[in-house]
Amino acid sequence: MVFALKYCFSFYGKTLDKQHLQVWQSIIRSNSYSSVQWQAVLKQYFQVAKFAPKPPEILEMLAEERQRTQTRTTQAPEPLTTDCPEHISIAWMYWLPKFWGMPVPGASTIAVPNPELEDEYLMTVNREAKRTNTPEAIPTAFKMKEVWGDV
Questions:
Q1: Which long-range contacts (CB under 8 A, 24 or more apart) does 98-106 make?
Q2: Neighbours of 105 (CB within 10 A)
């Protein structure tokens, strides 16, 4: 934190002498703010201040930052929502791991009970990629002639 503070002072054309440095180190040690909060506040300070920081200004901003981060962490995250029809979503969740060799984050593996359904899913993802103009979503080896023509 001292480096970031020295940088902040040098930005304003000031040097942090030994006495002032000791005061700032005492302030940094004597409170419960995290290094992430200190860094966030020092970054914000550049945007709002005209002069080198003073302890009361930074402490006030730290209190606001703590309040903001506590509010953010106490609120329950919103559930993921999509307007994608379920059959299309399932088709993508089935084929994406097969296309790219890695699972879809946060999605369970989809088992397909028969080859006809697998073909239907492949046709679905090809049509959706074509409809949304995202041909790069389908590797060339999996592009269907019925959808893309000669590939």
A1: 98/142, 99/137, 99/138, 99/139, 99/142, 100/139, 106/80
A2: 5
Contact 50, 18 (CB under 8 A): no
Question: Which structure tokens are listed for 72?
Answer: 């953010």
Token representation of residue 90 = 């399932």
Confidence of residue 108 (pLDDT cuts 50, 70, 90): low
Output the six-digit token pair for 20.
């002032």
- Say what the pLDDT of residue 19 is: 92
pTM, 2 dp: 0.47
E-strand ranges in the chain read none
* Contacts for 11 with CB less than 8 Å, ≥ 6 apart: 46
Contact 4, 42 (CB under 8 A): yes
Tell me the mean pLDDT in the region 134-147: 94
Which residue ranges make up each domain of the chain?
A: 2-74, 86-148
Tell me the residue type at 100: W
Q: What is the pLDDT of residues 46-56, one digit of tens each?
A: 888 999 999 99
Compute CA distances 128 → 1, 68, 76, 133, whole Å. Answer: 50, 40, 33, 8
Distance from C-alpha of 69 to C-alpha of 78, rounded to nearest angstrom = 17
